[in-house]
Amino acid sequence: MAFSQFFLGVVVASLLWFVLLLYTTLKAKARAPSSSEATDCNKIIIVGAGVAGAALAYALGKDGRRVHVIERDLDEPKRIVGEVLQPGGYLKLIELGLEDCVNKIDAQKLFGYVFYKDGKCTKVSYPLEKFDSDVAGRGFHNGRFIQRMREKAASLPNVKLEQGTVRSLLKQKGIVKGVQYKNKRGQERTAYAPLTIVCDGAFSNLRRSLCRPKIDIPSYAVGLVLENCELPLANHGLFVMSDPSPIAFYPISSTEIRCLVDIPGQKVPSVSNGEMSQYLKTMVAPQISTELRAAFITAIDKGNIRTMQNRSIPTAPNPTPGALLMGDALNMRHNSTAGGMTVALSDSVVLRDLLRPLGDLNNASALCKYLESFYILRKPLASVVNGGASILYTVYTALPDPVGKELRQIVFDYLNRGGRVIDGPVAALACLNPHPWILLLYFFPFAFYVFLRLLLPFPSPKRLWNAARLVLAAIVIIFPIIKSEGVRQTLFPVTIPAYYRASRLMRTQNTIRDV
């Protein structure tokens, strides 16, 4: 009897041990990457399918990479910004092979802007004489544009576009191995790849694990859509030099004009209780042209008023093996120059070209060191757009009345001069001449012009004081902007070792390709 009880106990214990071993093995197998995933040195995960994510997915897919894109919401986005693509951005679309994405969405060509102040207008055109006739800015619905790029990316057999919410990065010994996400059905999933590129937008939930963000909110954008009305000049946006901050109008379809009203500060009037409508009718409407005022009031009465924070986020990455941060998750600027999409497309070109010579991405530490050059090579265009937006908006709003009003009049008169005087700055803001030194080359002569104008007709003590305040404001504006972008990275990138790591490999690859 005792022996049979002992034997039964051994059998039960063995069965329990076997079940426990089987459970542990299956659990470990579920957590670990499959053999195909673990050895796929060519796979890349992209978190987010906005402008940056969709463009990069298509570019990498065309290069033969296996790309897994995970986007929180694959429905058409509804945004009130990201609706103007500068001419330089269109050139980047051509480099990526995505220029047809502005077709079939009722996009409108933009050849420049009309500046309006106190009933007077002056035209500022993009310097496009050296480019093909199709090169111009574009105004469109942001969501339509993004959907077109997503369709292009998903049409490639090696690109998988999936709806899901990425909850965290999977790390092992400090190296990012992939992501943990919840799919459309709410099921927990994991995906593995030697490189994960995070571009999940302005409100990224992964940003803090890959950079040191310093988020500033200088103002809010208030968006309206005006219907069946015309701007002062066809294929030109309208920039109203209003008080206390600017108002922009631009076409987003053949029948719709977007109006963006900038409201400085951390708070805006409430939309729900009617304060916003009252503010727009009493403070903004009297400052816009009579041709648009009726349509503006009608748009307010329809009630479709939307607001959005204008965020400024300088580039401050933490190089992390196995991962890279880009797009609005990495870097943002005020939307005053409409350069955000151009920066995203330019970054996609830079990263595609950096990855092209690499067949194996599995050496995470070496890849991380190599990809540090991405943050240097993106600087020429990004720093011009970031700096230009900050300078333009800060100059416009920094000085209080009455100096601020006088400054706006001087800026308007300066733009009215036209010709080569403004072609350089306009080319820079249109991303056609992205050289960081341009920020200094044009800013200080303009500041000197404003200084002299403030002294006219004669240098009274009051005018001397106002001019001195302007010089001080100019110094306070420009140098913190350059510092936030990085003095060496922006103005002297060739002094940084990371600049040469990529250059040597890319030159070698180009030589092999030529042979």
From TrEMBL:
Keywords, comma-separated and alphabetical: FAD, Flavoprotein, Membrane, Oxidoreductase, Transmembrane, Transmembrane helix
InterPro entries: FAD/NAD-bd_sf, Squalene_epoxidase, Squalene_monox
GO annotations of cellular component type: endoplasmic reticulum; membrane
Domain Squalene epoxidase as annotated: residue spans: 193-465
Top EC category: oxidoreductase
Superkingdom of this protein's organism: Eukaryota
One example GO MF annotation: squalene monooxygenase activity
First-listed, main subcellular location of the protein, grouped into a coarse class: membrane
Annotated membrane topology: Multi-pass membrane protein
Pathway of action: Terpene metabolism; lanosterol biosynthesis; lanosterol from farnesyl diphosphate: step 2/3
Record-stated family: Belongs to the squalene monooxygenase family.
EC numbers: 1.14.14.17
Entry's transmembrane regions: 6-23, 44-61, 437-456, 463-482
Descriptive protein name: Squalene monooxygenase
A GO BP annotation: sterol biosynthetic process
Role played: Catalyzes the stereospecific oxidation of squalene to (S)-2,3-epoxysqualene, and is considered to be a rate-limiting enzyme in steroid biosynthesis.
rRNA-binding found in the keyword field: no
Compartment annotation: Membrane
